[in-house]
Amino acid sequence: MTDENLEKSTGKENSKRQSTVAWVLTVIICTALISVLFWQPEVARSMDNQAQASAPTSVDGSTSPVETTLQNIPVFQVSSTQEALVRQPNPHTGIDTSLRTTAIEYTVQEGDSVFGIAQKFNIAPETVLWSNYDVLRDNPHKLAIGQVLKIPPTDGIWYKWTSRDTLDTVAAKFSVTPEDILLYVGNDLDLSNPIIEPGTYVMIPGGEREYQQWLIPDIPRGAAGVSTSPYFQCETSANSFPGTGYFVWPTSVHTISGNNYWSGHLAIDIGAGIGSPVYAADSGVVVWAGWMENGYGNVVIIDHNNGYVTVYAHLSVVNVSCGQNIFQGSVLGSAGSTGNSTGPHLHFEIRYMGGFINPQSLLP
């Protein structure tokens, strides 16, 4: 047989062998599929019978896989004495962003000050004083725990209308225009017939008035031509120490607590705790040492013999006496909350030639 015929014979045999293998694999696959289709229902029925035979039965003898699972879950018991906070659903989740247009009442708490209350409600401290003249008389030191103050919605004056008032006279009195009062939405006035009944409170937005002076005057020295009573307590005819003109902080605390320096409070309130030492801000002579009947409580006043006078109020203890010469940094007493005070602090003033200076501008 030639090589060519041998190759042809070998190719035919390989082709026949591959065909036979393919048929065998096809028969095996078909047989497996038929077996699975035939036996699957039988297997399922057998497993279901086995599950029913092993599951506990109920009173009527019936049960189910779900019931079996539920029976195996332990029961959670809540103690009858257990307390819980129940929060009811609130479908109203919107935040009220409307502006306040009328005054509200505020009860003075321990540690409050006119300045702090004003900051809390984002209004000027003058607004608090002017709107509560019947309570404070323009004196922030008349503030007392438990007082109820009117807090206007904006800067200006919360004013109680009288039978003698008109829009023109009230507007002129508080340096605004009649339209400012008439058009303020919180006043709810009839533009065509703006009648305001006596006793009605009206907001004067942007209103201001002359400030009623309440601070004690400078202490007179020598032949000043005025009475030395009641603000001159000490005999100071002897020579006294002159001041340096430079000041140190009167407490170890250098922070403001309460009223800052502003038009209604020509001093600063320093956050000194009860019993903490109070120092002389500069050298001089003590011209007041003791109780003062104007809301200041225990007070020390030093004349520095150069035009400056310093005042230290609300002390719990006074350690100096009238006419005593004092050096800068000497202990005058202890901080406290005597007089009209809602919390411990040191009320500190610096005066110069009859005027009042912001102490922070002279302290290091």
How would you describe the overall organization of this protein?
- The structure is a single chain.
- This protein has 364 residues and is an alpha+beta fold.
- Helix content is 24%, strand content 18%.
- Among the domains are: 102 residues, LysM domain (Membrane-bound Lytic Murein Transglycosylase D, Chain A); 150 residues, Distorted Sandwich (Glucose Permease (Domain IIA)), CATH 2.70.70.10.
- The strands form 4 sheets. Strands 5, 7, 8, 9, 11, 13 and 14 form a 7-stranded antiparallel beta sheet that branches.
- Strand 7 and strand 8 form a beta hairpin.
- The longest helix has 52 residues.
- The radius of gyration is 46 Å and the shape is elongated.
- About 5% of the residues have low confidence.
Keywords summarizing the entry:
7-stranded antiparallel sheet, 364 residues, 24% helix, alpha+beta, 18% strand, Membrane-bound Lytic Murein Transglycosylase D, Chain A, 3-stranded antiparallel sheet, Glucose Permease (Domain IIA), 14 strands
General shape = elongated
Number of strands: 14
Helical stretch tally: 7
The CATH superfamily of the domain at 215-364 appears as: Glucose Permease (Domain IIA)
CATH architecture call of the domain at 215-364? Distorted Sandwich
Mean pLDDT: 78
Largest sheet: 7 strands, antiparallel
Q: How far apart lie the N and C ends?
A: 126 Å
Gyration radius (Cα, Å) is 46 Å
What's the CATH C level of the domain at 215-364? Mainly Beta
SSE pattern: HHEHHHEEHHEEEEEEEEEEE
CATH names the topology of the domain at 215-364 as Glucose Permease (Domain IIA)
